[in-house]
Amino acid sequence: MPFFFSNPAGFWALLGIPVILLIHFLQRQSQTLPASTLFLLDAIDRRSLRGRKIDKLRNSLPLWLQLLSVLVLTWLLVAPRWNSASSVQRIVIVLDCSASMDAFREESLNAIREEIPKLTRRTGGAAYTVLESHLQGKKLYRGESFSELIDSLDGWKPSNSAHSPEGALRVGRSLAGTTGALIYVTDHLDESLPYGATLLSLGEPIENVGFAGLSVRSPEEGDDTTWQVTVRNYSDTPQTREWFLAARQERTSVRSVTLEPGATRTLSGVFPATAQRVQLVLEADRFTRDDRLYIVHPEPKRITLAHNVAPNANELIIAIIGSLENAPLFSTEENPDDENARPDLVFSTYNPLDPRPAPPVSIVFINQQNVPRTFFKGPIVAANHALIESLNWQGLIAKSTASIPIGERDVPLLWQGDRPLILLRQSGEIQQLIFNFDVIQSNAARLPSFVVLIHRFVDSIRTNKIAARSENAELGQPIDLAFDTGENAAPLVLTDDSGESTFPLSRAALVQAPSQPGFFTVRQGNKPLLLASANFADTREADFSEAASRSDLSGLPKEIIEHQTVTDPLWKIWAIALLLVALLIWYFLKQADHSSPVSEPT
């Protein structure tokens, strides 16, 4: 079983051997004792008569006992330890996967290459696990080969927003056990890591300038689409950066922007009319994630509208339709070959005195020819529903008209007294928002809640429509998609700069924007569902003013040795033997003093 010496400095005790030999080379001066007759003297060896001097080494039992005591003492001092039968050391490395670590990725990998092997030099083997610090992070490696561990980190690209590593450290401690090493690799100092984790911080303050915000404004009538971005200097010194706009194979002239420490500037321009997507490029620095901004022309799903209302409601309905984004009136000319083509949403009026069925997907307004003079009485109460949440209806004044027939599955959204004023009807293909009072004869059109409610309902229809849209998203942002769920429906395919990722329909809720900045698309079969961009947006991760370096690994080797090795089981016997040898040496030296030699008479 392999062993090693945990205290090599103890070998200095072997210097006692030459010291003992030197002492035994020195002879003491003989003592003179007068005697009357020579025959009373025993035969003695001739000793030095001139005092101490170097003489030949005399073989004696005290000499060998003293040499033996030095060897036993050295053995105890060097503290030999043996690898235990199960001396496989578990080492769990939790890598901070926040985006700021991208600036220190190479430093982190180099530190792992250099520091981790030092922890397993005195163990029989090691089992490695590498995790990302985010709860949804990947398990990058698990095995017993350190070279494979290093290879597994080649594709590691930290990209998450700021987060707590506590969950990952808890998992790491459960994998490492009570005797394993749990190491947290980051770029910021953390004085209170939980679960006995050891800090390895590799950051340092760096100068960084990057994009910190984006907005694209849709054009008013006759205007152009414009973009507006903010640029921030996170450094404590003034910084100057060059930037330009690129679209397809063309680019604008290079311009420069100068920012004072901590300052923010706004850049703006016109979105090229012939381009659907553009890039804003800022002069690169050490942290490159916020040096490019990918912008697509945002466009919600196109939803077609129609209206079938009484003449007195025309003006109100046309105004409402005009306030909706990307919602043109339905035209059969757009679908000449599709006999089943129909609008996505219809605005309709309903006369209780001349009832007719409303379109299956519609917003319905009661419109009674002979309106009573009385008004609804009682308190106005809103339901707890997302469509009507936070809307104030207390100023509504409506006349007491006849009611539309209310079904068992209808969901009342607003009451006044016992009268449900607004209903939501959802059943199969039916999606109807019903205003159960005469809107034209009320003040509803002057209430902001009325317009907001209609916009919310239209957006719900738009969200559920299977159609293409374009938008600008953040890195890792969940993507909500409407898609075909039929029996033969194709899976979803996300395409970005790194390739294609396929999502079965059962995992469609897991679709999210890529973790690296760039453009991406989502399609189902040949049907496009989304054209989007993914951009870095966590300004906390772009600020390196508190980044710092520190390693607390120095104490780990000693702890690992104590856990993974055993001391000499006979050390108590060796200690007793050393005591016995010392007593024997003392005894023989005492006897030698009583039998000291005498000199011959002159």
Structure in words:
By secondary structure, the protein is α+β, with helices and mostly antiparallel strands. The chain folds into five domains: 104 residues, no CATH class; 139 residues, Rossmann fold, CATH 3.40.50; 69 residues; 160 residues, Rossmann fold; 67 residues, Immunoglobulin-like (Sandwich), CATH 2.60.40. 19% of the residues lie in helices and 29% in strands. The chain is built from nine helices and 31 strands. It has a seven-stranded mixed β-sheet with strand order 18-19-20-24-23-22-21, with helices on one face. A six-stranded mixed β-sheet has the order 7-6-5-8-9-30, sandwiched between helices. Strands 12, 13, 14, 16 and 17 form a five-stranded antiparallel β-sheet that branches. β10 and β11 form a beta hairpin. It is elongated, with a radius of gyration of 44 Å. The protein starts with a strand and ends in an 8-residue tail after the last helix. The C terminus is likely disordered.
Helices and strands, with pairings:
Layout: E1 3-5, H1 16-25, E2 26-27, E3 53-54, H2 61-77, E4 80-83, E5 88-95, H3 105-115, E6 125-132, E7 139-143, H4 146-152, H5 166-176, E8 181-186, E9 198-202, E10 209-217, E11 226-233, E12 239-247, E13 250-251, E14 255-259, E15 264-270, E16 277-282, E17 292-296, E18 305-308, H6 314-322, E19 345-350, E20 361-366, E21 380-382, E22 411-416, E23 419-427, E24 430-438, H7 448-464, E25 469-474, E26 492-496, E27 499-503, E28 518-524, E29 527-535, E30 549-551, H8 556-564, E31 565-567, H9 571-594
Parallel strand pairs: 5-6, 5-8, 8-9, 18-19, 19-20, 20-24, 25-29
Antiparallel strand pairs: 1-4, 2-3, 4-31, 6-7, 9-30, 10-11, 11-15, 12-13, 12-14, 12-16, 16-17, 21-22, 22-23, 23-24, 26-27, 26-28, 28-29
Helix pairs in contact: 1-2, 2-9
